[in-house]
Design brief:
Layout: H1 7-70, H2 73-92, H3 100-119, E1 122-125, E2 137-143, E3 154-159, E4 161-164, E5 167-170, E6 172-177
Parallel strand pairs: 2-6
Antiparallel strand pairs: 1-4, 3-6, 4-5
Helix pairs in contact: 2-3
């Protein structure tokens, strides 16, 4: 049945048991190191995932904010044609006594219209006498500079520019002194 225990078999069993314990301790150390490594990776992945979630949330908030801010841009652009036509009508209207009421009505209509646009963040860019800025102005012609108008100054505005909440909708068309 079972073999009788002799001092030799006891020594072999003790040595085998010692080797087994050494292998087991080594394996435990290796496995403990691997567990620590995996825990560190898990913690890193968790932090990255949380950062990505925060980035997605802030990006979504920014996109919603921009949609609210600039959602009326196409509509406002189409209304700028109306503003331009009202301004042209005021310039073209006869300045005689018979048309005084018509002229005042056009001016009041333009004023109310511009105030309504301003409520939604649409601002006029009228750079007459200011330094030329390629960001807000489109030079359609140049003229020689004089003593009263230094170089790189807007002399005449053909068409006003407009911004929506600080973002350019349409550049002002200008003549610049060279």
């Amino acid at each position: 049945m079972s073999e009788p225990q002799t001092p030799e078999t006891d020594a072999i069993d003790a040595q085998t048991e010692q080797e087994f314990l050494e292998v087991t301790e080594t394996q435990v150390e290796v496995l403990s190191a691997r567990i620590a490594e995996l825990e560190a990776q898990l913690k890193d992945n968790q932090l990255r995932a949380q950062a990505e979630i925060r980035n997605i949330q802030s990006r979504a908030e920014r996109e919603v904010s921009n949609a609210h801010k600039y959602g009326v841009e196409k509509f406002a652009n189409s209304l700028l044609e109306v503003v331009d036509n009202l301004e042209r009508a005021i310039v073209a209207a006869p300045k005689d006594e018979a048309n005084q009421n018509l002229l005042e009505g056009l001016q009041l209509t333009l004023k109310v219209f511009l105030e309504s646009l301003k409520k939604f963040g649409v601002e006029a860019v009228d750079p007459t006498g200011q330094a030329f800025s390629a960001e807000f102005h489109q030079a359609v012609a140049t003229q020689p500079a004089s003593e009263t108008t230094p170089a790189n100054t807007v002399v005449t505005v053909f068409q006003k520019g407009y911004t929506l909440s600080g973002r350019l909708m349409r550049p002002a068309m200008v003549v610049v002194a060279q």
